[in-house]
């Protein structure tokens, strides 16, 4: 997977996770809030992986 793909998927998962958490707050659904938090964390991790891939690519391009 490319760094751009990781970043896009990460951003999508973060947004969906936040939306689930908000919906869980409104409805009082603790399970949905927890799922949202997990999905948001997954998104942040994916974005971090994308950033790391960019860093490695930049470093290798300089060599």
UniProtKB/TrEMBL annotation:
Transmembrane segments: none
Lineage, uppermost ranks: Bacteria, Pseudomonadati, Pseudomonadota, Alphaproteobacteria, Hyphomicrobiales
Region (Disordered): 1-63
Official protein name in the record: Uncharacterized conserved protein YjbJ, UPF0337 family
Domain of life: Bacteria
Bias (Basic and acidic residues) ranges: 51-63
Family stated for the protein in its record: Belongs to the UPF0337 (CsbD) family.
InterPro entries, sorted: CsbD, YjbJ_sf
Span of domain CsbD-like: 6-58
SUPFAM superfamilies, alphabetized: Hypothetical protein YjbJ (SSF69047)
């Amino acid at each position: 997977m490319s760094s751009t793909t990781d970043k896009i998927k990460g951003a999508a998962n973060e947004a969906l996770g936040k939306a689930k958490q908000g919906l869980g707050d409104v409805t009082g659904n603790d399970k949905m809030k927890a799922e949202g938090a997990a999905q948001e964390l997954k998104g942040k991790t994916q974005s971090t992986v994308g950033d790391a891939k960019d860093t490695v690519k930049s470093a290798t391009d300089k060599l």
